[in-house]
Design goal:
five-stranded antiparallel β-sheet; 10 strands; mainly beta
Length: about 170
């Protein structure tokens, strides 16, 4: 198994004087977004930002960039006796500050791929979700908002990712 997740199989036989000692494998250019996203799920989490309410913790635990794709690793920990059913997982670019009597402009970003359990987090358990988005930058007066909303409930989360977080990816 190579670093890009591709599996190579070799039949090996012993030779006292081999003709070549090193094998150069061609890079796998066909590794998909799903391959990278599923590989990121098992990465060691490091907390970038966290929001905790109602005995549920929502965290951004990693931001990764590969080619023209940004991968966001999210972790939802449910410390309550009720299951947390995820109804909406939304990424929007919006203004940092909202003035009085002004319209809010939000640009919703559509995920290219979502890996992990995005339906439900069982009671006293956690779930890791990796979302792949097209590469982008955020202007100074804006931020990336991650909304996680519960189905038929009021436990909703808004995570604010600033441009500095993305630049450190």
């Amino acid at each position: 198994v190579t670093g890009d997740g591709h599996v190579y199989e070799f039949t090996v036989t012993y030779q006292p004087q081999p003709s070549s000692l090193v094998w150069h494998l061609p890079p796998n250019k066909k590794a998909s977004i799903a391959t990278y996203a599923n590989g990121i799920i098992d990465n060691k989490p490091r907390r970038i930002l966290k929001v905790q309410k109602y005995n549920v913790v929502a965290k951004v635990t990693g931001i990764y960039i590969k080619d023209e794709i940004i991968y966001y690793q999210l972790e939802i920990c449910n410390h309550s006796p009720l299951d947390y059913d995820i109804d909406l997982l939304q990424f929007v670019i919006r203004d940092k500050k909202k003035g009085k009597r002004t319209a809010i402009q939000e640009n919703e970003l559509t995920p290219l791929y979502i890996a992990g359990n995005k339906k439900q987090v069982k009671a006293y358990n956690f779930s890791v979700i990796v979302v792949a988005l097209d590469k982008f930058t955020i202007p100074d007066a804006k931020l990336l908002g991650v909304r996680i909303m519960e189905k038929n409930g009021g436990r909703h989360f808004n995570l604010k990712i600033y441009n500095g977080h993305i630049l450190k990816a």
